[in-house]
Write a structure and sequence with these properties.
The protein is α+β, with helices and mostly antiparallel strands. Helices cover about 40% and strands about 35% of the residues. The chain contains 5 helices and 6 strands, in the order H-H-H-H-E-E-H-E-E-E-E. It has a 6-stranded mixed β-sheet.
């Protein structure tokens, strides 16, 4: 590895350290190539619930949106006090996503873990009104089990 007097302890230590670093480098490089080949590292990363919701909104993909919901999901609108089950809510989602004037202007994840997601969104509606919407989603088994919103008019 290095050309030095083998009788010196520091030369032996230096050669050993270089050999260890080289092994670490090779291990990292080989693992990187394997991960890339299997697309594990780049393509199969787990998306957060917020990222999944934002993607379904951007794509206007109601089927993907529906897959994020637990069968027993309940949606609560604090503005009106109304509660909706999955079938009722999905009917509204299909209408919203089907209307090009329904726009999620921006969405920011305030907090998320395996049990809860909190987001803040700016929404534009077909009647030309705008709202700031705070949403709290309770999660169960990786799906939304309860979704509550509070909205403030921006008009």
């Amino acid at each position: 590895i290095t050309d030095c007097n083998l009788d010196s302890w520091y030369c032996n230590f230096f050669n050993l350290a270089l050999a260890v670093l080289y092994c670490i480098y090779l291990t990292f490089f080989v693992n990187l190539v394997i991960f890339q080949k299997n697309n594990f590292f780049w393509e199969e990363q787990i998306m957060s619930m917020h990222a999944k919701l934002a993607q379904t909104m951007t794509d206007r993909d109601t089927n993907a949106y529906k897959e994020l919901l637990h069968e027993d999901v309940v949606f609560v609108f604090h503005k009106s006090g109304n509660e909706f089950g999955k079938a009722e809510w999905m009917s509204m989602v299909e209408g919203m996503m089907g209307n090009e004037k329904f726009i999620n202007e921006s969405s920011r994840c305030v907090y998320e873990n395996d049990d809860i997601m909190v987001s803040h969104d700016f929404m534009s509606y077909p009647d030309d009104t705008r709202e700031a919407v705070m949403a709290v989603a309770m999660l169960k088994d990786g799906k939304i089990i309860r979704f509550e919103t509070g909205a403030t008019s921006l008009d």
